[in-house]
Design goal:
60 helices; Immune_Signaling-Apoptosis_Reg; Meiotic double-stranded break formation protein 1; 69% helix; two-stranded antiparallel ribbon; ARM-type_fold; mainly alpha; disordered N terminus; two-stranded parallel sheet; 1180 residues
């Protein structure tokens, strides 16, 4: 031995270490093949002999074992080649190491033995060695009188099963009696032993097969012991191993039910902690949550989650009754992201149980949630952001309305700001969760803490909409063409659609919120807003913002997305938003509806119904589409741009058929046209559907959305009208109006629509069409049917005059209606419009028609006279002269007019009163035009002057318009000094010669003048505006006439005391009644004729002072003209006593001079009681 050592050379540190690894007494006998060729230079044979040797120190054994472990780790293949040469050696090595494990008490040596044994068995992969080791363990545990020395064996078994999971099944099947020893270990007082038992159990139950075989064992014996062990664990090792075992158990429904049933038994007895031997898992986990150890807190939260995922409804109440939510909410303020995440997770599951809310845990914890969310958003942990937002959304969604979540507007504001920060996240998944939370946040009971934070809500909605807009505008990644790139593009579009849908749902909830707050007066505005400050925190401002945001963001986003994909659920939400805005901003609903209609939303909605609702699917979408079209249609009909709105009765009729018919429309435009064209018998529901289709086409067309062929639509509407005729139906007036409009718009210029429907149709059908046309024209302006009607009706008139000769009225019951239409068309024309050749031809035909009638033909003459009168007064002076020449050339018309005027003396208050009014107005117009233009007279018009004066001197109270018309005629005669070439004023019969003093007044007499003045005074007292105009104008003309012939009589008439009484009677109508134009003109007369007994100088001063103080800008042009005339007359007579007042009034009038020279107001032409009247003709 010494020689060998000498041959090896001197010893150094390395040699000493290698020597320590060799068993010198036996190494020389060992074959060199057992020596490792690499450091550490370990002889495997020496290890086998050294480790069991009693005389070798434990320190050396530990060193050798440590080096062997290192060799296994560093040179596993070399070691395994040596060990695996002979299976007997493997088994011997295992037995030797196990023996060392069982016979030493040094913990570090035990750990080394266990580690080496695990490495050997896992590296060798020999079933026999594993079986050998299991048998040794089994034998050791069975032969051990107590559990005191079992710690090492139990630890080895646990780590062995951990390293080789299939051993769990083998251990349970082949060594089942070990379970009893494990039970003993679980009640052993040493927590180290119990920790090793729990660890082993955890590994056994991690195998589904083993777990199933051990299910009875757990249910019958193990469960209460396990819970009490977990509850009483003091060392962290035991706590961790128990929780690890629990996590394995909680993977299975069976064990969850067993544990929770055991827990419920414990909770059902008196005392919070339960009786001895009974432990509640929720209470144990609650205790761990309250510990200061973060690892235990996380593990506890993890286990709570593991229980709840099986059935929140079944198991959540136990945790809620244990007040666990309270402590989970507290943990949300932890700096540990893992603990916060698990707390979020637990709370999300607990939120599925209504008890979670009824116990008011959310009210307690909502502030913690908001604070935690604000804090987590500052961290770079996307999963944490998502989980927090998911919890917040769940609470906001499930919170009962009767339990207010936010107790102050400050809390509500903080929550909104946290959501605003979250929705701005660059991570799409986080922003998507934020949008869902925002949608749940926009609930009335969440926002009812006063004052409502409308400004904050607006900022939140703007952030959500802008985030969605940014995402929707992000360009798609366009790869080279191929299936993969197409799939990626489709996925991207679907992602965008999903995000857009969530955004729209949030916006819809905001709209619903605004609608609900409309009935809450306290929520309309912030009572703490400073006076005079701009009120942004009001419901009205918020509602207008919703409309603006929808217009500028929602609509463009949806339209852009619909170009790529159309999702019915998205469009349902979108249309419900548009529908709700009609209610939210009622003063804008008509304007908004017009914008939508002009943007093709009628077409869009009909296409959606046809595409998705044709097979009775998507009933919710169909209902939303129908409701949207219903309200938009009524809005459009209620506020037409250039027409009078329909009556309430008409709107009610439209409402009725829209409600029934719109849900039935599910076809595309060609099918709808075909359905409209159906001439077969149409029943009620189908007819209402036709009404709806027609009305929608009409509304679309008037807003320039012509999405069907005009030619096809024309044919369809014609067929529809013929179907109505066939079935003798009377549709709502709006439907016929729409039909006529569409026919007028769609027909070709050469089509004779009016001849087809009026001239060639049966009388009753033609009459219906004419009635509808007349109503249509009365309510509509600036439509393209006027020209068509005039042209076609000229042809009809020509036909009638040719066919029916001298008595056209006897054979055409529709002629009066046709003439009414002509007069209405003329009324719709603008003032000062030249009469074209068509108009002149119509004048000629109508005058010929009148000449063939008798005064008894009132139904024909009344509209004809109206047409002639309007044609004279609603045109330029040059056209007036031409028109008057045409009419005066008709001797038959003049003769008819004379006969009609003569009826005035015998038929006052008769049904012909309106015709008499028109006749007197026409006579006055003819006379004025003939006199002004020196037109040729073919037939004179004889009128009995004394009868005229008699009618005016003793007027009838119910004939104001007739009196005004006769006054207009008399005024014209007075202005012409009774010298008209057309009008011949004749006596009624034999008259006595005039008195000498009356010769200057001829053909009037003094008594007649005085009687006429009294009559005018009586008429003025009636205070009828139109009649008052006519009286004052006639009085002006009379005084001018008298002053030119006998000034004394003129002054005598003006100075009558009765005039003062008359003036003050008229002034008694109100504080500013002196500013009425007829009174101003009357006072101007009194001033002009120096009648101080009627109006004194002081009273003139009072009038001027009142006028100077009045707001002249509010007065009409007619009043201003009368006031200027009064002022100038007073000035010319030297009656301006107060120069400052005069100067003020003068400046005011001069400042308004441009308006006095403006055109007459558009209401100059009126139809009063069926009589065409020009206000300027009566007044001036």
């Amino acid at each position: 031995m010494a020689a060998r050592e000498a041959a090896a050379g001197p010893r150094g540190p390395g040699r000493d270490e290698e020597t320590a690894l060799l068993y010198e007494r036996a190494h020389s006998r060992h074959d060199p093949c057992w020596l490792l060729p690499v450091p550490p230079r370990l002889c495997l044979a020496c290890v086998l002999e050294l480790l069991p040797e009693p005389c070798v120190s434990l320190v050396r054994k530990k060193h050798v074992l440590s080096c062997f472990r290192d060799a296994l780790l560093r040179h596993a293949s070399l070691v395994m080649q040596l060990v695996a040469q002979d299976q007997r050696i493997c088994i011997h090595f295992i037995n030797m190491l196990f023996g060392l494990l069982c016979n030493v008490e040094d913990g570090s040596v035990i750990d080394l033995c266990i580690e080496v044994l695990i490495q050997l068995t896992t590296q060798l992969k020999l079933e026999q060695t594993v079986r050998c080791l299991l048998d040794e363990c089994h034998k050791q545990l069975c032969n051990m009188p107590s559990m005191r020395g079992s710690l090492a064996t139990l630890t080895l078994l646990g780590k062995l099963v951990d390293a080789i999971p299939p051993l769990a099944d083998k251990l349970v099947m082949e060594h089942s009696n070990l379970m009893e020893h494990l039970l003993r270990g679980l009640v052993y007082p040493n927590e180290g032993v119990r920790a090793s038992v729990c660890y082993l159990y955890g590994k056994l139950y991690s195998s589904p097969v083993a777990a199933e075989m051990l299910s009875g064992h757990f249910r019958e014996k193990l469960c209460p012991l396990f819970l009490s062990t977990l509850d009483g664990a003091q060392t962290k090792e035991l706590q961790i191993n128990c929780l690890g075992w629990l996590r394995q158990l909680l993977k299975y429904d069976l064990f969850v039910s067993v544990i929770m049933n055991e827990s419920s038994l414990a909770e059902s007895t008196e005392g919070v902690e339960g009786p001895p031997g009974k432990t509640s898992l929720p209470l144990v986990l609650k205790k761990l949550l309250l510990s200061r150890d973060e690892t235990l807190q996380v593990a506890s939260a993890h286990c709570i989650t593991a229980v709840l995922v099986h059935s929140p409804a079944k198991h959540a109440p136990a945790f809620i009754h244990a007040d666990i939510p309270e402590f989970l909410f507290e943990h949300l303020s932890s700096s540990s992201e893992v603990l916060v995440w698990f707390s979020y997770n637990c709370l999300i599951l607990l939120a599925e149980e209504p008890l979670f809310f009824s116990k008011c845990h959310t009210v307690y914890g909502i502030e913690s949630v908001v604070r935690s969310l604000q804090g987590s958003l500052r961290m770079n942990n996307t999963e944490l952001h998502k989980e927090g937002l998911l919890l917040f959304a769940e609470i906001l969604t499930r919170q009962p309305e009767e339990i207010k979540l936010f107790t102050s507007s400050t809390m509500c504001r903080d929550a909104g700001r946290a959501l605003q920060e979250a929705v701005n996240s660059p991570v799409l998944e986080v922003a998507a969760e934020a949008v869902k939370a925002i949608s749940a946040f926009l609930r009335k009971d969440h926002q009812s803490a006063l004052p409502v934070q409308y400004r904050e809500l607006r900022a939140l909605l703007e952030a959500m909409l802008n985030r969605c807009a940014d995402f929707s505008q992000t360009p798609l990644n366009r790869r080279p063409l191929g299936h993969a790139s197409s799939r990626d593009s489709n996925k991207a579009i679907l992602r965008r659609g999903k995000f857009l849908l969530s955004t729209l749902e949030g916006f819809r909830n905001a709209c619903r919120l605004a609608m609900e707050f409309q009935s809450e007066p306290s929520a309309h505005e912030n009572p703490f807003t400073a006076p005079g400050a701009e009120k942004e925190d009001t419901l009205e401002a918020f509602s207008e913002f919703l409309l603006s945001a929808c217009d500028s963001l929602c609509i463009p986003m949806v339209m852009r997305h619909s170009e790529q994909a159309t999702q019915p659920n998205l469009m349902e939400v979108f249309l419900s938003i548009l529908h709700s805005l009609f209610v939210i901003v009622p003063h804008m609903k008509e304007k908004f509806s017009k914008k939508l209609a002009s943007s093709s939303f009628i077409r869009l909605t009909l296409e959606l119904k046809a595409r998705f609702c044709s097979s009775l699917s998507h009933s919710d979408l169909n209902q939303v589409c129908s409701s949207f079209l219903y309200d938009m249609s009524l809005n459009l009909l209620s506020a037409p741009e250039k027409t009078e709105p329909p009556s309430q009765e008409e709107l009610s009729a439209v409402s009725a058929f829209l409600q029934h018919g719109l849900p039935e429309i599910r076809s595309r435009s060609p099918e709808s046209l075909a359905f409209l064209s159906d001439r077969q018998y149409v029943e009620g529901i189908a007819r209402q559907r036709q009404y709806c289709i027609l009305l929608l086409f009409y509304l679309a067309y008037i807003h320039e959305d012509r999405f069907v062929s005009e030619a096809e639509l024309f044919v369809a509407v014609q067929s529809f009208l013929l179907s109505l005729q066939d079935q003798d139906e009377h549709p709502p007036l709006t439907v016929i109006r729409a039909s006529i409009y569409l026919l007028a718009i769609c027909q070709d210029k050469d089509d004779a629509l009016a001849e087809d429907l009026i001239y060639s149709s049966p009388v009753d059908i033609a009459r219906k069409v004419l009635i509808v046309l007349r109503t249509f024209l009365r309510r509509n302006e600036d439509v393209q049917v006027g020209g068509l009607i005039r042209g076609h009706f000229l042809l009809i008139l020509q036909h009638l005059l040719v066919e029916h000769g001298a008595s056209p009225s006897g054979d055409s019951g529709n002629l009066p209606l046709l003439l009414s239409l002509l007069s209405l068309v003329q009324l719709k024309n603008k003032s000062e419009q030249e009469l074209d050749s068509m108009a002149m031809k119509l004048l000629h035909q109508v005058s010929k028609l009148c000449g063939k009638c008798s005064p008894a033909d009132v139904d024909i003459l009344q509209p004809s006279f109206n047409f002639l009168y309007w044609s004279l007064h609603q045109t330029t002076p040059s056209s007036q002269k031409r028109a008057a020449a045409v009419l005066l050339s008709s001797t038959a018309l003049i003769e008819l007019l004379e006969k009609t005027l003569a009826l005035t003396w015998t038929e006052v208050d008769s049904p012909r009163t309106a015709l008499l009014c028109s006749a007197w107005l026409l006579a006055a117009s003819f006379s004025a035009q003939q006199h002004a233009g020196s037109l040729q007279v073919h037939q004179t018009l004889s009128v009995e002057l004394d009868q005229v004066l008699k009618v005016l001197s003793f007027p009838k109270k119910k004939a104001a318009l007739l009196s005004a018309a006769i006054l207009c005629f008399l005024r014209t005669a007075l202005q012409q000094s009774f010298s008209s070439a057309l009008v011949a004023l004749v006596p009624s019969g034999a008259q006595p010669p005039p008195a000498p003093e009356d010769s200057a007044l001829a053909p009037l007499g003094t008594s007649q003048v005085l009687s006429l003045v009294i009559g005018l005074q009586n008429l003025l007292v009636q205070k009828d505006p139109l009649l008052s105009y006519a009286c004052v104008a006639c009085l002006e003309a009379l005084l001018d006439y008298l002053h030119a012939r006998s000034p004394d009589i003129a002054f005598h008439v003006v100075s009558q005391p009765w005039n003062r009484f008359l003036l003050f009677t008229l002034l008694d109508a109100g504080e500013s009644s002196f500013l009425r134009p007829e009174i101003l003109r009357l006072m101007t007369l009194f001033v002009r004729f120096q009648s101080s007994s009627v109006l004194s100088r002081e009273e003139v001063g009072h009038v001027l002072q009142g006028a100077a103080l009045a707001d002249l800008s509010t007065l009409s042009n007619t009043t201003l003209q009368a006031l200027r005339g009064f002022f100038l007359q007073v000035q010319s007579m030297g009656l301006l006593a107060d120069e400052s007042t005069a100067q003020t009034l003068h400046v005011s009038l001069e400042g308004l001079s441009p308006s006095t020279s403006s055109a007459e107001p558009p209401l100059d032409m009126l139809c009063l009681g069926g009589v065409a009247v020009s206000l300027s003709h009566i007044r001036d």
